[in-house]
Amino acid sequence: MEPAIAAVFREEHGRLLGALVRRFGDLDLAEEVASEAIEAALTHWPVDGVPAKPGAWLLTTARRRAVNRLKRDQTYAAKLAVLHVDAQRTEPGPSVDASLPDDRLQLFFTCAHPALAAEDRVALTLRCLAGMTTVEVARAFLVPVPTMAQRIVRAKKKIREARIPFRVPGPDELPSRLPGVLQVVYSIFTEGYAASSGPALQRIEVAAEAIRLARVLRGLLPAEREVAGLLALMLLIHARRDARTAPDGTPVLLADQSRAAWDRSMIEEGRTLVIAALTGGSPGVYGVQAAIAALHDEAASVETTDWPQIVALYDVLLTLSPSPVVSLNRAAAVAMRDGPEAGLVLLDALAEEPLLRAYHPYALARADLLERADRLSEAAEAYRKALTLAATDADRAHAERRLSGVSATLRNTPM
């Protein structure tokens, strides 16, 4: 497939699916006729050229296929009578909400509905809004294709049986529902930034897809500051992608990364969005996290980073969204501000947190601080713990290398 045509399909898929779902109220039917329209485009466009309005061409073709299918299926006769579909119409009908640019927003809220299991929300969002095939989604999350197919089918069945509406929440509902949508997009990015399993630390294409989804969401909800905050956070983190792994695929810590390899245009875009996220009211969770990421990206080195400000921002974050992981990150920042022993005091106070007992980053952070505090025997034991908790080949290799270095120092230290 030509790259230009592929780009059109990727951009138009979510918009097309949203328009079809709004018109027919059936996600399976919408997906089927959208796929048929894309297949028709693959036949005609390479010969006739990409039309001036490719989205309208796809929508017209898909609508006609849907109408023909409904006419053939008598079980849909009543639905067809209600819809009064004009098969010749080429322009989309009015949006669910005239103030919204297109119909993709309703798909965001449907795919991220709280009635769906968390893993199903992510799978359905990638399938419907990112336009990824079931095979691509399965490959991205390193699960068998039948397993991913079952997740998507399960999510669609839940939507159908629970009568989850294909609509955008009203203004009174939006504040409570938007965080769920943002969490789904951020979960996709997190899997791309730090893979939960497999040989690689990062899945660049998954992280990039999450950023694309956030850009769509930002365009749909430009006044929502937390949408700006989420997009800023992901851009500021993803800007470091090329420096985060060594040639052998093992992680490179922030202190050792080549900052010249960071994506400066992405950092500048992220910094601009941070201002939008933090202007006009109380800060949100993503806006504060983005501000922390911006301080890291603005610094010339780890030593010149504004650690007091980062600790202060983590204090704010703890009031907004208290969690053991936030406390862990704050402890690491305190260690940079006040020294490794100060950080260890905070980390040891978190040792009984159930979430952190089997959390690889916690074990690794503790091992690193023990090594920096010259408590090498304890550091070696902590690295062994981190090694048992590592889920990816890259994390295992990193823990093994750090353990090997500490063990060599211990062997060469006079008793």
TrEMBL record:
SUPFAM superfamilies found in the cross-reference section: Sigma2 domain of RNA polymerase sigma factors, Sigma3 and sigma4 domains of RNA polymerase sigma factors
The record's section on InterPro entries has: DUF6596, RNA_pol_sigma70_r2, RNA_pol_sigma70_r4_t2, RNA_pol_sigma_r2, RNA_pol_sigma_r3/r4-like, WH-like_DNA-bd_sf
**What one GO molecular function would you report for this record?**
sigma factor activity
**Keywords of this protein's UniProt record, alphabetized?**
Sigma factor, Transcription, Transcription regulation
Q: Any stretches that span the bilayer, and where are they? A: none
**What does the entry give for GO biological process?**
DNA-templated transcription initiation
Where the record annotates domain RNA polymerase sigma-70 region, the positions are: 9-74
Q: Which Gene3D superfamilies match?
A: 1.10.1740.10, Winged helix-like DNA-binding domain superfamily/Winged helix DNA-binding domain (1.10.10.10)
Q: Where is the RNA polymerase sigma factor 70 region 4 type domain?
A: 111-159
Q: Where is the DUF6596 domain?
A: 177-276
Family recorded in the similarity comment: Belongs to the sigma-70 factor family. ECF subfamily.
Q: What is this protein called?
A: RNA polymerase ECF family sigma subunit
